[in-house]
Amino acid sequence: MKPTNSSAKIEDSNKPVRPLFPDLPPSSNAKARRFGRIRSPIWSEHKAKFIQQYLRIFVQITKHGAYVDGFAGPQNDGQVEAWSAELVLKSEPKWLRHFFLCEKSTKGLAALRRLKKSQPIPRDRNGKKLYRNIEIWPGDFNKNVAEILKGGKITQKEAAFCLLDQRMFECHWETVKKLAAYKNEPNKKIELLYFLGVGWLHRSLSGIRYTEKMDKWWGRKDWQQLKTMTHIAIADLMRDRFQKELGYRFAAAYPIYDRENGNRVMYYMIHASDHEDAPTLMVRAHHKAVRSLPKETQEVFQFAKNEETCIPESEGLLQQKF
Ligand SMILES: C[S@@+](CC[C@H](N)C(=O)[O-])C[C@H]1O[C@@H](n2cnc3c(N)ncnc32)[C@H](O)[C@@H]1O
Question: Is domain 5-319 annotated with CATH 3.40.605.10?
Fold first, then answer.
């Protein structure tokens, strides 16, 4: 489905920025941290800051770029510090030029439209206006992805990053394959950051009735094997698939924890990239937004050597050692 004219049009505005979701009540059953008026679970906040941190470094290098958010609506009503799309849009410098914000739910779309409307005209440090185009794509991202890519709005030369922040099983493996296959050699593939909800996976798998949904998510018929695998083994298998099946040069699984100093991994964010510097930059972003990684991992990257860490090896970053 193409974006509607009204939603795809740039709506640069100098009007005062309205607070996000003024009309929505705060809600979360999860353990949460207070942010004055609004609560958001620490893991959502860590994830959003991790993405924002990485993209901040990413644009410093590329000086431009496209950001595709396949599941862009806010996770929790009324969140302030934990909405990836919002943090990425406000991140400085505002050199990302093309935004494709995709969402299925009416509520999520309404939030995205408010977010778009509230954006000030992007400017550089000297006040010069910068080009930026924000498109909102309503509907199923698994269908829209082909249209977005077919439109040629992301050129082969443009650096591109795609966030696949599904709730659990919404992102079809075919969708991931389309994104990975879009760029032709020698251009580097679209970078991917993929949510893998290991913390809820076994419980979710036990409640599965419609196997077609799982076949589409996993992209193969052997997803039943996940029921007997540990979280860490599942994350490592998924990470490996990004390299072996999709052809990415680098793939790593970054843990997001239940609490500030907790060691329970709620989910992994799997990052896949062809850029040789990207893993180091991602580790740096994770360190800033979440916490230090285990020493043995840091040594691989020669990064933050003096940091103290309390993460057991088994719960740390999963990566190919290069
Ligand atoms: C986990 S939330 C995204 C959280 C968001 N990235 C954040 O930072 O708060 C997933 C979103 O995807 C939407 N969604 C679910 N299935 C979808 C689909 N097939 N296509 C597009 N959006 C979908 C949901 O309505 C929800 O808003």
Answer: no
Are 74 and 41 in contact by the 8 Å Cβ rule? The answer is: no
Ligand 1 neighbourhood includes 45 CB (under 6 angstroms): no
**47 Cα nearest atom in ligand 1:** 8
Give the DSSP letter string of 167-207: SSS-S-HHHHHHHHHSSPTTSPPPEEEEEE-HHHHHHHHHT
Spacing, Cα 168 to ligand 1 middle (Å): 10
Q: Is the pTM of this model over 0.70?
A: yes
> Which residue is closest in CA terms to ligand 1's atom 25?
105
What are 51-69's pLDDT values in tens digits?
A: 999 999 999 999 999 999 9
Task: Give the position of tokens 């599942």.
Answer: 234
* pLDDT per residue as tens digits for the range 205-219: 988 888 999 999 999
Rounded Cα–Cα distance for residues 161 and 96 (Å): 10
Residue spans of the domains in the chain: they are: 5-319
